[in-house]
């Protein structure tokens, strides 16, 4: 099986009072997953003082691996919406 490169846009959960994009980026860098790795996660400005996390990940190709990896991202405290910006096969 091959691998896929995925670029994610991760928003902070508006319902979590102390959600912080910088802390989410740090948590993503140390995130452990059986199906993929985070190569780079940086917080970027969005608008009006809001920030989001842009993450570049490499995930094993297979049934349900991308979903399992996204579930690992959603398990991080303060993560709201997870959106795929780009995806490609390596």
Relevant terms:
90 residues; alpha+beta; Alpha-Beta Plaits; four-stranded antiparallel β-sheet; 2 helices; 4 strands
Walk me through this protein's architecture.
By secondary structure, this protein is α+β, with helices and mostly antiparallel strands. The chain is 21% helix and 46% strand. It contains two helices and four strands; from the N terminus they run βαββαβ. The longest helix has 10 residues, at 65-74. The N and C termini lie close together (11 Å).
What is shown here, in short?
Helices cover 21% and strands 46% of the residues. It is of the alpha+beta class and 90 residues long. It has a single domain, classed as Ribosomal protein S6/Translation elongation factor EF1B (Alpha-Beta Plaits).
**How many domains, as an integer?**
1
* Number of DSSP strand runs: 4
Architecture (CATH level 2) name = 2-Layer Sandwich
Distance between the termini: 11 Å
| Overall helicity | 10-25%
Mean pLDDT: 92
The number of helical elements comes to 2
What would the CATH topology be?
Answer: Alpha-Beta Plaits
């Amino acid at each position: 099986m091959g691998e896929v490169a995925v670029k994610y846009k991760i928003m902070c959960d508006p319902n979590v009072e102390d959600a912080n994009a910088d802390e989410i980026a740090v948590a993503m860098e140390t995130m452990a997953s059986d199906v993929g790795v985070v190569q780079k996660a940086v917080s970027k400005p969005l608008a009006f003082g809001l920030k989001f996390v842009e993450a570049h990940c490499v995930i094993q190709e297979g049934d349900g691996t991308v979903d399992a990896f996204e579930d690992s991202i959603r398990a991080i405290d303060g993560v709201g919406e997870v959106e795929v910006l780009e995806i490609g096969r390596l």
